[in-house]
Amino acid sequence: MANHPEVVAAAHGQWGDETLDCLLRDRVALHPDDPAVADPPDIHLLTGRGPEEWTWSRLDQEVDRLAALMLGHGVGRGDTVAIQLPAGVELVQAGLACWRIGATAMPLAVSLRDRTMTYRARRGGARTIVTSTRIGGYRAAAVAVALPCFPTVLAWGPEVPDGAVDLDAAAPTPDEPAAYLARVRIRPDDRAALLWTACDGEIPYRHRDLRNAGAEATGATLTNTPGLTCPTDFPEVVPPWLRSGCRLVHPETREAIHPEAGTAGLTGSGRTPRP
């Protein structure tokens, strides 16, 4: 209990009034044209899609678009959204889109399959999942569609299966997140993320728990070294990146192609110093 994020944050006086989306908006306002996040160079081996790199302005636009699509499919403040995507721009986008509308992001390792996914979805209250049509040889979207726990499947990639929403083709309602946020206030005490231990223990984080989490990022580039599905490592990547405004990169994903690789494809190799 002494190491619970709420206790640690309270002990250090780390209670900010802002949500995590406020950090993103600050970055966009300060450095809209700076590089923000990049795919692994070989992401096509997993998803069939070429690598992309987004500026802070582009990231903000893509987050708004996905947030609008989530709202259009019934996701709102207090809801939990499962995310099963390889490390890259779309994984980051999905988490940020949840935070924009007050939903809880529940990232799942790409190695998880239907039985464990069903357990965690039901335990965490997730009825929506954001995923890819394929992750290596695994047809993630088709599997999700077949699971009763996910009435709504939002999928990136080619050949989206029947029953899933094609995120590339879907047209969100303009300004929907802005209109929604005019009516609904997202609070620092709202739950931001739900992560899982290897033994299926759930660890929730509020916005205020993550706002000041992790060591400060001092380099121009932060490589996603720990896995974004790991409860002890997630706070070491996303909050420092948002606070510093550095470029978040993901290394090659070859290890993630095989199910036995676990979350190896979500790891990297350290930080690049500022020039």
Report on this structure.
This protein has helices at 5-11, 20-30, 44-47, 56-72, 89-100, 114-124, 140-146, 176-183, 207-211, 238-244, and strands spanning 35-38, 53-55, 80-84, 104-107, 126-132, 152-156, 165-166, 191-196, 202-206, 221-223, 247-249, 271-272. The chain is globular. The chain has a 5-stranded parallel beta sheet with strand order 4-3-5-6-7, sandwiched between helices. The chain has a 3-stranded mixed beta sheet with strand order 11-10-12, with no helix packed on it. It is an alpha/beta fold and 275 residues long. The protein contains 10 helices and 12 strands.
CATH class: Alpha Beta
Sketch the topology as an H/E string, one letter per element: HHEHEHEHEHEHEEHEEHEHEE
Order of strands side by side in the largest beta sheet? 4-3-5-6-7
User: What gyration radius follows from the Cα positions, in whole Å?
Assistant: 17 Å
Total strands: the figure is 12
Going by CATH, the homologous superfamily would be ANL, N-terminal domain
Q: Any idea what the CATH architecture is?
A: 3-Layer(aba) Sandwich
SS field, number of helical segments: 10
The CATH topology annotation reads as: Rossmann fold
Shape: globular
Sheet/helix structural class: alpha/beta
Supply the key terms.
12 strands, single chain, Rossmann fold, five-stranded parallel sheet, alpha/beta, disordered C terminus, 275 residues, 18% strand
